[in-house]
Design a protein that fits this description.
This is CGLD27 family protein. The chain is mainly alpha-helical. It contains five helices and two strands; from the N terminus they run ααααββα. A hairpin with a 6-residue loop joins β1 and β2.
Length: 166
């Protein structure tokens, strides 16, 4: 990304929206959202599998795997999906925050602490650059996360319908 800084920008470097975007994009946790579909889905599968560590015993306490294998599997899968939902919602909140900061014409920042907040209005060039980043980099990620939450909701609904007709 371009290294664009305005000499009269009073916002500390770590609170500038472009730097917040770059930090989010570089982090191991949030960078998964912008990776290829295979890597993205693999990470979600790992989260779902690890969630079974908690979901499995809870489902087994509710439905004996020896007697009610289908109910045990449905209950465990539904409970394990909660871990995936938490992960996707956390990704969504992080990317939405950065999206809001990039698209906003004014930036709220703190100079040295919580008690001295200020507001800075972005010049038109910076606002245009930030909105282009949102359009081509951030919005596709947010759209992917929204699609993921929709698919999860559909899968949970299908599981519930299967349970009902069981």
């Amino acid at each position: 990304m371009m290294d664009f800084s305005v000499s009269d920008c009073p916002v500390p470097a770590e609170q500038q929206p472009l730097n917040e975007y770059e930090a989010l994009k570089a982090s191991n946790f949030f960078s998964t959202c912008s990776s290829e579909w295979r890597k993205y889905l693999t990470k979600l599968a790992w989260v779902w599998g690890l969630s079974w560590v908690i979901a499995g015993p809870v489902a087994a306490a509710s439905f004996s795997p020896q007697k009610y294998i289908v109910q045990f599997m449905l209950c465990g899968a539904g409970l394990a999906t909660i871990g995936v939902i938490f992960t996707v919602v956390r990704w969504y909140l992080g990317w939405s925050y950065v999206c809001d900061r990039l698209t906003s014409p004014t930036i709220f920042y703190e100079e040295s602490g919580w008690y001295d907040g200020q507001t800075w209005t972005k010049p038109q060039e910076i606002l245009t650059r930030d909105r282009l980043i949102v359009s081509y980099q951030v919005k596709p990620i947010i759209h992917r996360l929204q699609q993921t939450l929709g698919v999860i909701a559909l899968i949970l609904l299908l599981g519930e319908l299967f349970w009902y007709f069981l």
